[in-house]
Every structure is written in structure tokens, then in C-alpha cells.
Batch of 2 targets.
Target 1
Amino acid sequence: MTIEESPSSSSVTPLPAEAFAELYARIDGVVTTPGDATWDAARQAWNLSADQQPEAVVAPRTAEDVQVVIGFAEANRLRVVAQSTGHLAAPLGDLSGSILLRTAALSGIDVDSDALTVRVGAGVLWGDVTAALAEHGLMALAGSSPDVGVAGYLLGGGLSWFARSRGLATSHVTAIEVVAGDGRMLRAAADEESELFWALRGGGGNYGVVTAITMRVFAVRDAYAGMLLFPLERADEVLTAWESWARDADEAATTSIRLLRLPPLPELPEFLRGQRFIGIDGAIAVAQGAGAAAERVAAAVATLAPLRELGPMIDSFELMPAGRLGEVHMDPPGPVPGVGDGANLDELPRAAIERILELAGPDADSPLLAVEIRQIGGALAVPAADGGAVDSMPGRFLLYAVGIAPTPEVAAMVKSATTAVLDATRDWHSGVDYINFRESQVAPERLYPAATLTRLRAAKKQYDPADRIRSAHPIL
Ligand SMILES: Cc1cc2nc3c(=O)[nH]c(=O)nc-3n(C[C@H](O)[C@H](O)[C@H](O)COP(=O)(O)OP(=O)(O)OC[C@H]3O[C@@H](n4cnc5c(N)ncnc54)[C@H](O)[C@@H]3O)c2cc1C
């Protein structure tokens, strides 16, 4: 079948449950279908706002299982969607006509402390990798949230607290094991299936179902990390000062600033519950080695000083073990219903700050939990040597707006608020955005430069000619 003839959701007649029973008999993993008692739990994404209604949910245990599922999908004109957590479930749509392949059982974390690499199964979460590496005095380029999946994060790029000194996490991937959309079980690396290796590193889940990933790790035990918290009433002053600091700050620092309206949730510490803040958090890399802590953090303390001089009400920056960096950003520890979206910004001039404050500052009546701006640039701006399809990140800032959306009505209200933030800053948008922060369906031209997109599409024809694999951000 060609890409033009690929199955669309409208052309698919639901398969009888017996067909999936036959699939179940052929694999080690678990198949769940709409009549099953566990159906709602099986189809549920991390983002509870996503109402995923696939034809079946399969939890494979092995790469061989994945191969069987892809063959079954081909025989029955279905598509396959891989998902480790469902953090990026929102742009996928309702998943009719697709088998949802949940990868949690593709586990395993193998640390090679001599080669300084780790091989992880595609269903592994960042928190588990970080903890396993910490036991060896090692660190990988994890993002802010421990319960984000390694696979989706790395296939999209991967922005860690070391991003401005070490670049995108995906540029440190050394091998990817995958069952391609055409059913072949492949290993992609610099010297094997090199075009697929290039495409997977940034091309998202468009090429197949990844079963394991190997990446470089670093002998980094700790960093100077934490949060500075100010009342939201000081948003203008603090955002203005941070923008001017962030533009020229040392590349050792990767930070984020957020205008926060926290819900009155019992799981939050009392002083945060229901309160409004502007917070700066992140990490500053420090010298590793045997020196005294005060000496090792001296440069980081100097880097942070201009922000500290603003006089935060809370200052938690300290020398922190790498294994605890997942606590810094206080991301939700489990599934939540959310609507969010983001865009890369070339600059954050006074006019942009004013527009953001109008929508989310202290005088705004905003339904948004957070309007966040991450500091990018530094090593992120430089294409990585031998990098993949996403080997750098445009712009100096990465904007992301998000709100909690427990009902469809609230979701619609939050959606219009996130759109308003993106629209208000449109004059400063970079040419392309970071795919992992785009949580709405966007044209692929917004995610990749033209030459990259042409090459990604050629690789798609080579490895998934029937467009069997459905991804959060399709490139066709
Ligand atoms: C609270 C929160 C914090 C975040 N923090 C950061 C951060 O600090 N830095 C950052 O860079 N990003 C961050 N993100 C964005 C995050 O990287 C993306 O949402 C990412 O896609 C999540 O990966 P996942 O595997 O958990 O999600 P999933 O929704 O499971 O996967 C996302 C997509 O990846 C593809 N995919 C997943 N697994 C496979 C597989 N085995 N084979 C093939 N394709 C696959 C699929 O297309 C899937 O739709 C954050 C998101 C949230 C919600």
C-alpha cells in the first residue's frame, strides 16, 4: 500500500473482538478491547483531558510482540500509535482506526559505567533512569518531570536542565531499537540505518515503534539548583530582570520563569496552596571533582547573584544531587487533565512582556495555571555534530501556557487562554517550534525547516511507506 492509500479513520469498519482475541493469543503482552472491564484504565493517557478511543490497546512485552501487532494492523487496515505515558496525547485525536500500543512493559535500565551509556526500554520513565544512574554517580539529560517517558521526550528533542551547556538530549542518543512501520526489526545508529537514526532523533514517533534507546550519560553528581519565588504582584519587575539576565547568562545556567496560579490542592504545601507567584527555577552546572562544596559552587552562586538580589520570598537554590533535579520544577507527580501549548520566541522585548502580563500578570483574570518561559540559546542554538533531524533549537526563549481542564467546558476556556498567549506574542515567534511543547495539531512546516521536512518525508517513505504509524505530530 502507498502513503496515498493509507487507512483513514473514516474508512475503517470496527474489527470484531474475536479478531483481537486471535492477536492476544499470538503475543506475550496484553490486548484490551472496548468490552473489557479494564478498558477505561487501558486507554487512559497521562493527560486526562484526552479521550482516547482506539480499536484496541496492546501492551507488548517484547519487540517480537510489537512486530506481530504491526503485521496484524497491516492485515486489518489499522494504524498503530505508540505511547509510553500520554503526556503528548492531546494532538493525537480520538485514535479511531488505530491500535494504541502502550509501552510500559518494555522495561529495563542497563547502565554501562565504563562506556558511560545507558540502554533503556521504551516504556521507562525518566525518574527511574535518573535514580538508577545516581547510584553510579552518573546523570542523563532528563527533563523537568520524572514521570515523562524517555522515548517521547528523546524522539522529540529533550530539553534538560543542562540544555544550554550540553544541547538537546536527543543529540546524545547513540542507538535506537525499533520495529519500523514496514514491520522490519531494526537497530538504528550512526553506522546502521543511519537515515532512520537521523530521522528518529527529532522526527517523533513517525517511523515505527521504538523498543529501546541507548544514550550517553555523564559523570555529574550534582548541580546548583532550586527555585526563587516572588509574589505575582512583582511579575513585571522580576520578568524584566530575568529576561535581561537570561539573555547573557553563562551557558552553565538553564532556567525557567513562570507566572503561577496554584490551585488549592491538598497535596501542595500549605504556603503554596491557592497562591499566586512568579517563580524562577532551574539548575546551574558546577565543577565536578573533589573540591569543597563552597569552591565548586562559587561560579554558580555568582551567576545567580543578580536574580538573588531581587530579594525572593523563598530561595531554595543549593548544591543538589543530580538524582533530585526532578523535584525542582514541581511538575505534577501523576496524571492531570490539562490543556497547554507552546512556541519558540526569538526575543522577549518589553512589548512582549507587557502582552504576557496583560494576559497572566497580577491584574489579569486568567484561568491558566502557568505561563512559563524557558531560557534557551547557548549550546541549543548550535547544531550538534552528527545530530538528528532536530539538532538545535531556534530562538532565545521557549514559551508554554497551560491550565487545568477537568471538564470540556473548562478545557475550551483554557484553550482560548493558551491561544491568546501564543497570539499575543506572535510578532516574536521563531520560524519553527519545539515539537514536544506543541500540544495542539500544527502543520509540520511549523515544526521543521523546509529541507529537514523534505528529508523526514523521504525517510518516512523508506521505513513506513503505508503510513502505518500514527504520531502526535505527523509529518505528512
Ligand atoms: C509536566 C510536563 C513536563 C515536561 N517537561 C519537559 C521538559 O522539561 N523538557 C522537554 O523537553 N519536554 C518536556 N515535556 C514535554 C515532553 O517531552 C513531551 O510531552 C513528550 O512527548 C512526552 O513523552 P512521553 O513518552 O512521556 O509521552 P507520550 O505521549 O507517551 O509520547 C509522545 C509521542 O512520542 C511518540 N512515542 C512515544 N513512545 C514511542 C515509542 N516507543 N515508539 C515510537 N514513538 C513513540 C508518539 O508519537 C507519542 O505520541 C513536559 C511535558 C509535561 C506534560
Note: Residues 82-89, 92, 103, 122, 143-145, 148-149, 151-153, 155-159, 204-205, 209-210, 331, 436, 471-472 surround flavin-adenine dinucleotide (CB under 6 Å).
Target 2
Amino acid sequence: MKLGIYVHIPFCKSKCHYCDFLSYSKMDLAKEYVDALIKEIKMYSKSFKNTNIQSVFFGGGTPTVLPSYLIEKLYSCIENNFTLSEDCEWTIEANPDTLTSEQVQLFKKYSITRVSLGLQAVQDYHLKNIGRIHSFSQWENAIWLLKSNGITNINTDLMFGLPNQTLNEWEESLNKVIKYDIPHISAYSLTLEGNTRFVNLYEKGELKLIDEILDRQMYTMAKDILGSYNHYEISNWAKQGQECKHNLLYWEQEQYIGAGLGASGYLNSFRYTNTRNLKDYIKNMDRQIALIQEEKEHITLRMQQEEFIFLGLRMLSGIDINKFKKIFNIEIYDIFGNQIDRWIKQGGIRNNNNKLVLTYLEFVCVFFV
Ligand code: SF4
């Protein structure tokens, strides 16, 4: 059995204009939060202490915004309460402006081998317009700091479809980043969701987005410029062998513990999501775990089979027909034969050596709407 751990740190220095992730810029409850989080993590270790952990992911928010003594408490809690597999991938998300030499020393001490650095664009005026509080040169410095300390497994997030962004600027972002030999790149189109500054501006008619055709051209450009990478998921590219194990765990329906505010986990066919209320989380963690889990849903066999299809389509390797049979003990065509035939007739997917793969990535929209 594969098992991963996701730990959510819901704090950021300030809020980016497009961001709907659960994070606060006020840090007054950070210490109480970390204490509660440690209780939750220890609670899971009672059931999974001897299970080999394949991946640990500290996400947020910006985990590196925590003072070093708090983040060290969390690292040692994970290390002391779980059995990490020898090749465990341990990732931490960081922002270029919050990464310090002291933190990088802690990464080394606790075998944190992978760092995911948010960047989005290389033009400082775009960074400012979307509410990022760092410059491109700070990202360059962060890369230098990591590499000079032997941390080379780095992801960088890029974003296209920014307000007023041109195709040339997007090309410049991609080309500048790959010059640093970054082994993993995530490239997403800007989407407006939740209660963000950008959504509010858009609703008032004060934010103009680029048109859909340009957005598609930008995606196609990413595929071309990142051609030497393994394009293994719709929005993710990796050098061979450096695909993100933690994300693969999600996409391959493996189990994961989710700890922290708003975190989701998937254990023993149940998916749960923790409360998004910081004070409730801290208060209730002192009482019992059921109180912090806001949603808990049994993922039935049928739901697991449907998820297998949709998650499989996200990955460029496609839906593995043999794996479906192995997991569910039934042929995929016995359940989804009609849909699969229809999609093949529509030209959206094809059967390539017992893998159902998308013929062109844009077709994925047909499935996900
Ligand atoms: S740094 Fe990341 S998590 Fe924090 S507000 Fe910006 S996009 Fe959101």
C-alpha cells in the first residue's frame, strides 16, 4: 500500500490577487496552529506508524513563512512518528522572498529533498499586477541558494493568461526558467475563482482577461518549449524520473493523510476534509478528531471506478485498461464500454496498447465540464 502525507500551512505574507487557497496573512495564531497540527499528525501515526510513507508534502499557503523553530517542530514530528521510505519524496512549497539560508539548512537536516517555488512570470510588472511580493531576481537568488546547498529537485510554478500578457512575454518566461535547468515545471492558466481580488475586479468590469484563443496558444507554446521534458500530466512537465511522486499518488488513487486547516485526506475508501475555520480547528483538535472533519464521504466502488477514468485522462500516459481489471476485477468495457466507444468515435481518445489516451489535450474539457 502506498501512503503519502499532506500538511497544510495556511499562512502567507500577503494574498496574491488571484489566489483562492486557504491562507491568512495574520500570523498571530501560528504557534497555536502548529501545536494543534502536531496533535493531528500524531493521531494519524497511531494507525500508520509502521506503514512506509512514500511522500510528504508541506503546502499552503507558504510553509516557509513560519518561524524556523515552528517548522522544525513539524519536521521532527513527521520524522519521529512515521516510517519514511528510503526514497521518500519530501516537498516543501516556498516563495522566493521567504526562503532563507537557515531554512535551507533545516531542509538538509530533515532530508527535505524537493522544493516547489512559486514564480508565475519573469516580468516584475506582471508579478506586481497579480499581487506577488517578490521579483524575478529574488527567484534567481532562491534557485542559487538551493542549488549551492545541493538541493536540485526543484519545481517552479508558472502562470499564463495573465491580464495584458502577450505571447512574447509568456515565451520569455518559459525560456528564462528552463535556462536554470529546473527539473519540474507546472504551468497553469489563470482561472478566476472564489472570493479573490481578481474576481471582484472582474465582476466590476475592471479586469480584462486575455481571450481564449491566445490562452490556447500559450498552452501550445508551453508544450513546444518544454518539449524536452516528460509532459506527464495536463499542466505538469518533468525531466525523466523527476515527476512529482506526491501528485502521482493523488492521480493514481493511492491513500494519503491530509493534516491541517482545510486539508483533505483519502483513507480506507473515505475522503475527508477538515474545517476551514482556524479558531475551530485549534479549539476542536484539543477534543476529538471527528470535530475537525467537516466532510466525510464514503467513496463507493462505482465512484472509485469513475475517478479512475477521469484521473487517468489527466495523465498523458492515459487510462491503463489492464490496471483497471487488476484493481476492480472487471473489464473496463463491461462498465464504461458505451462511453468509451462514443469518445473514440468523437475522436477524443484512442486505444494505444491498452492505454486509453487523449488524442488532443484540449479534448479533456469535454470530459471535465
Ligand atoms: S503565495 Fe501562494 S498560497 Fe500564498 S497567496 Fe500567493 S498564491 Fe496563494
Note: Residues 133 and 277 are 26 Å apart (CA to CA).
